[in-house]
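Researcher: Re-running this chain for the archive, since the previous output was lost when a drive failed. Same request as before.
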Amino acid sequence: MFTRALVLLSLAAPSAAFVQPTFLRSSSSTARLASTNGEVTHTKKKDTNGEAIVNGNTATNGEAGKDPYGFIVPILGDLHIDPRKMEDYSIGREHVKSVIKDAKSKVGNDNVALVSLGDLGESKNCDHNPDNPFELFAGTSKCHTIAADFLGSFDVPYEVIGGNHDLEGIDEFDSDARNLRNFLKCHDKETPQFCRQIAEKTLLVGLCST
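Model: Regenerated structure tokens:
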């Protein structure tokens, strides 16, 4: 059994910082937009003069005039990418990118994050490997390379939570551990879970049992 969770932990953030989530649906995926009126901050680790650091990210006061408690996070549901249908995914991406572009104009270029809920590849053969017409696409190196390129094309840093289909590379890998290491390598992640400070006194936490 696999469990995935995305959690926002707010530590004494003012209630006025949060608004009702907005939902966006495209032809190839579902995206949820969790937003506030302020900004998201995520910077590489540096001298912070006492500011909190979580997974190499540090909270700042943001740009002048911005609400330091605010954040905007588009959330992509299970993509189940089929490499034969990338045009459909490109159309869906443009819908989300338009939201991201609008968000950047309101909260700043560096104040938007993207989260994928995993299950990145289609759990069937997608004519991707002529040497094995029965191989599932999900969980393969090709699957995660294509998914990483896709998730990295939204012009914002992304986080990903692995799902059960993300370890289905059973013809390529002789263990889940090797499959997981490849997943992390392709997505340039140190762990299959993440924790980052998304705004002042607010953590964005991704958990999974993969």
